[in-house]
Design goal:
The longest helix has 62 residues. The radius of gyration is 36 Å and the shape is elongated. The chain starts with a helix and ends in a 12-residue tail after the last strand. The N terminus and C terminus are likely disordered. It has 4 domains: 174 residues, GAF domain (Beta-Lactamase, 2-Layer Sandwich); 123 residues, GAF domain (Beta-Lactamase, 2-Layer Sandwich), CATH 3.30.450.40; 69 residues; 122 residues, Histidine kinase-like ATPase, C-terminal domain (Heat Shock Protein 90). The chain contains 18 helices and 16 strands. The strands form 3 sheets. A 6-stranded antiparallel beta sheet has the order 8-7-6-11-10-9, sandwiched between helices. It has a 5-stranded antiparallel beta sheet with strand order 2-1-5-4-3.
Length: 556
């Protein structure tokens, strides 16, 4: 009986206002958002402080006000509080210096903004965790029109700690949801990579990662053989077509550090930080302020970086996203390695099958045709002139057929190149992509066996040179027509780009040819540029082929 009496007394002493606040801390109502939780805290705080309204502000990671919530029993005061000057004037130290401020409107000038907000007194308390200020709590005007007391200040500090707990819980929940989404997308991307349905795994990666990371630009930047510069292998987002093949020759210390550490890192203030100049030109191209750089290997890249960029109008990347990216890139690297191994097995099986077909053609078909030719040649010696000529034509046809079969055998035993990765297809795609940049479509002419016997690294260089040449035409030539010719013979590959523009002229455009010349000289080739004084430019890039085996990325 006594116990029941004590429980009844305890129930009478329970304050429903504190119970509501406790539920906000411990429960997540269905369909409840972070803003709803802040509004419940503000409502409870206004009740506990007996004031007309309470304003809660929450800062984002860049220091800007992300949430501005007002609530309380006086609806007019709540509406007016939307104009409370929390970031300037006498209330500025609450967030700027983490100070507790009590301000009376009677002692403030007209320019402080208090007249617009129509408040008499404001008690401002910072909301912070350790040394980080997360926002502010502002109590406006007691209901009894008395001044805020020291006891009110102590209660406001307690309520600010409650607000900080709500903010931290929300951000932890957001980080967990974000990490779960990254891992789910990673699993889906892994399945797509292992399916073997995509000829270019890295292209699939950058397109998917752009959506997963909510980025403006995603690029795979691979270390070049000189180990002092990087090259954009794949990109997705604005200017992607002009980025592919671009060589980053600036200091690559940060990218090298990311690869050496084997862990992603977030980079902020790209536009103003000189220490991040190695990838700053990519960031500058899309106006990015924030980036995540993550190590990446596989898909034909031995040492590379997966770079994700966001513009300043979007929230900067956070450490929680870096943590999610760490797990994501680890699984992605494993998936790319598995996809590479699968492709190698398929390539080996296809080479074996092609070798068998080549042997059958040589050992059976050619030998049979050769025997038939000898029989016809013998018969021609015993026939009359007219019949002998007809037999000789048949013998010539058999010889041509044997030559064609031998050429087919050579192709069957040559490098494996998929139709998607051939020079013909990639050049056609590039010309299509550059149409918007040029303002018209370039004319493309491809001659010779470009789909056979050209290694992937030679193809990559050829496409990179074509992209750079077309970009130069778009930037400097003021041309109305561009003709592109790619030809391959037994010993060399030649790329020719002709425009009807105003000629090179400017020194800046000549300096842009240095990269093209370097690509040619690295392969013991040559670059020839002929330009009139004011009209037309012909660029010819030629490299030898067939002298050494190259890497092959795909099967087909």
């Amino acid at each position: 009986m006594a116990v029941r009496t004590n429980q009844a007394v305890g129930a009478e002493k329970r304050d429903p206002r504190w119970e509501s606040l406790l539920r906000t801390l411990t429960e997540d109502p269905p369909d409840s958002s972070f803003g709803d939780a802040l509004r419940r805290v503000a409502t409870s705080a206004a009740d506990l402080l007996s004031c007309r309204c309470v304003v809660l502000t929450v800062l984002d990671r860049s220091g800007s006000v992300e949430h501005f919530i007002s609530a309380g029993p006086d609806q007019q005061a709540v509406e007016r509080a939307g104009r409370l000057p929390v970031r300037e004037g006498p209330l500025a130290p609450v967030v700027a210096a983490a100070q507790i401020v009590r301000v009376s409107a009677a002692g403030q000038g007209r320019g402080t903004g208090f007249a617009t907000a129509a408040v008499g007194e404001v008690l401002g308390v910072p909301v912070h965790v350790e040394d980080v200020t997360l926002g502010g709590l502002y109590a406006c005007d007691r209901l009894d029109d008395a001044a805020f007391s020291d006891a009110d200040t102590e209660l406001a500090v307690l309520l600010a700690d409650v607000t900080a707990t709500v903010i931290r819980r929300s951000r932890l929940t957001q980080a967990a949801d974000q990490r779960q989404r990254w891992m789910a997308e990673s699993a889906e991307l892994t399945r797509a990579l292992l399916s073997g349905e995509h000829a270019n795994p890295l292209q699939l990666v950058v397109e998917r990662v752009r959506d997963i990371a909510d980025s403006d630009l995603v690029a795979v930047v691979a270390e070049r053989p000189d180990r002092r510069s990087y090259e954009v292998i794949e990109a997705a987002g604005p200017y992607a077509s002009t980025l592919q093949g671009r060589v980053v020759t600036a200091d690559a210390e940060l990218a090298s550090r990311v690869i050496a550490e084997g862990a992603p890192r977030v980079v902020s203030d790209l536009s103003s930080s000189s220490s991040h100049s190695d990838l700053a030109d990519l960031a500058e191209l899309v106006g990015a302020e924030s980036a995540i750089l993550a190590p990446l290997a596989g898909g034909g890249v031995e040492h590379g970086v997966l770079a994700m960029y966001r513009r300043p109008e979007r929230p900067p990347f956070t450490e929680s996203e870096v943590a999610a990216a760490t797990l994501f890139t680890a699984q992605l690297t494993l998936a790319l390695e598995l996809a590479d191994n699968r492709a190698k097995r398929e390539r080996s099986a296809l080479l074996d099958e092609r070798g068998r077909i080549a042997r059958d053609l040589h050992d059976h078909v050619i030998q049979r045709l050769f025997a038939i030719g000898l029989t016809l040649q013998s018969a021609a010696t015993q026939a009359d002139l007219r019949a002998a000529n007809r037999l000789q034509d048949s013998i010539t046809g058999i010889d041509e057929t044997i030559s064609q079969i031998r050429a087919t055998i050579y192709r069957l035993t040559g490098p494996l190149i998929s139709a998607e990765n051939s020079i013909r297809t990639r050049a056609a795609h590039l010309v299509e992509d550059m149409t918007a940049v040029l303002g018209f479509r370039a004319e493309l002419d491809v001659r010779g066996p470009v789909d056979f016997g050209v290694e992937d690294d030679v193809t990559d260089d050829c496409i990179a040179v074509l992209r750079e040449a077309l970009t130069n035409v778009a930037k400097h030539a003021a041309a109305t027509r561009v003709d592109v010719a790619i030809s391959v013979n037994a010993s060399e590959l030649a790329l020719e780009v002709c425009d009807d523009g105003r000629g090179i002229g400017a020194v800046s455009r000549r300096s842009g040819l240095a990269n093209l010349r370097a690509r040619a000289e690295r392969r013991h080739g040559r670059l020839i540029v002929a330009s009139g004084a004011s009209r037309g430019t012909r660029l010819t890039w030629t490299v030898p082929i067939g002298a050494a085996p190259g890497r092959v990325r795909s099967v087909g």
